[in-house]
């Protein structure tokens, strides 16, 4: 009610986002969202299985309603996600459980990216073009091709599927110079230094190759740090990863922030305070690098609605009351 809006605290630093479904755009939830946030990510509604469940059968209505309402409420919209190994219909990259041919899979990849991007056009400020392509904790991270997850996209197309996805997305943007949209690579466990190195090496290789042929332009504009953390997360590792990604010359966004702190949908006072302190440390770090951070997005409005509800990872409790985590964010010093 009388709480300081998070978006006001960080108005000169970065956008403050949240993940939403249709249920968040009504009543008390909408009020809370509008008070603290100025950008939304659709938690599930724009994923490949929601956009194109059958080949060529695009189903935009559900996501359109959320996007249009969010825009009407004055929120910006981030697009999530075009290419992923989860929540993706099998037909896109397999046939009876075996990989599609490279040619067919590439055609599906490109037509999905093009059709979805053309549909939303300039309604979004950015897209997660590829999500979670890297293995966790790769042992030889500078060999990024070896560190790629053996996903169905990888198995059908090969290690250049990431580059191919960004090339297809860039082609759409090149045809619409009036649009202002950033193309992101997004991943989790990015505070792990081996994984951060693999992501860094991949983005650098793809961008260096593109820059040579396109007078220095970026192909991948941004790196998304999902930031699904826990009380064991070391903020020094977060800082090292953040600085490593910034050194690529791209923008960075914190795309899915939450901090697991318990197991049974309620926290002890000690856990709640430790969680608040870690949120504060992270926001202090983000503020110090605000020149390179476009957006910080939390992954859900309150604990009860979280994808990890039992771990109470968010900043408002099941009754939408502010937790120590909220106070950590608005007063990180
Ligand atoms: C999660 C959603 O929050 C859940 O509702 C859904 O059941 C599974 O996906 N990384 C991502 C997000 O990029 O899309 C995921 O969202 C969480 C992990």
TrEMBL record:
The active site is at 256 (nucleophile). Residues 1-332 form the GH10 domain. It comes from the Bacteria. Belongs to the glycosyl hydrolase 10 (cellulase F) family. This is Beta-xylanase. It comes from Paenibacillus montanisoli. The chain holds residues 358 to 690 of 1081 of the full protein.
């Amino acid at each position: 009610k009388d709480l300081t809006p998070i978006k006001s605290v960080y108005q000169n630093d970065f956008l403050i986002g949240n993940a939403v479904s249709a249920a968040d755009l009504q009543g008390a939830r909408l009020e809370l969202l509008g008070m603290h946030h100025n950008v939304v990510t659709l938690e599930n509604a724009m994923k490949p299985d929601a956009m194109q469940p059958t080949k060529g059968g695009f189903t935009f209505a559900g996501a359109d309603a959320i996007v249009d309402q969010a825009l009407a409420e004055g929120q910006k919209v981030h697009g999530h996600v075009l290419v992923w190994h989860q929540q993706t219909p099998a037909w896109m990259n397999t046939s009876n459980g075996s990989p599609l041919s490279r040619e067919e899979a590439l055609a599906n990849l490109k037509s999905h990216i093009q059709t979805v991007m053309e549909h939303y056009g300039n309604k979004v400020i950015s897209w997660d073009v590829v999500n979670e392509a890297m293995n966790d904790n790769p042992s030889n991270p500078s060999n990024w091709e070896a560190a790629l997850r053996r996903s169905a996209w990888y198995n059908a197309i090969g290690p250049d599927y990431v580059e191919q996805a960004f090339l297809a997305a860039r082609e759409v943007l090149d045809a619409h110079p009036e649009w202002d949209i950033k193309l992101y690579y997004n991943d989790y466990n990015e505070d792990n230094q081996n994984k951060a190195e693999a992501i860094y090496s991949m983005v650098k290789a793809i961008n260096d190759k593109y820059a040579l042929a396109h007078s220095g332009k970026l192909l991948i504009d941004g790196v998304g740090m999902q930031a699904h953390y826990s009380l064991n997360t070391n903020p020094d590792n977060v800082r090292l990863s953040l600085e490593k990604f910034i050194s690529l010359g791209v923008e960075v966004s914190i795309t899915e922030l939450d901090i697991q702190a318990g197991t049974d949908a309620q926290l002890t006072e000690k856990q709640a305070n430790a969680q608040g302190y870690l949120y504060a440390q992270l926001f202090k770090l983000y503020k110090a690098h605000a020149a390179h951070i476009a957006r910080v997005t939390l992954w859900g409005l309150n604990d009860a609605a979280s994808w990890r509800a039992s771990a109470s990872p968010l900043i408002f409790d099941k009754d939408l009351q502010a937790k120590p985590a909220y106070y950590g964010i608005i007063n990180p010093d």
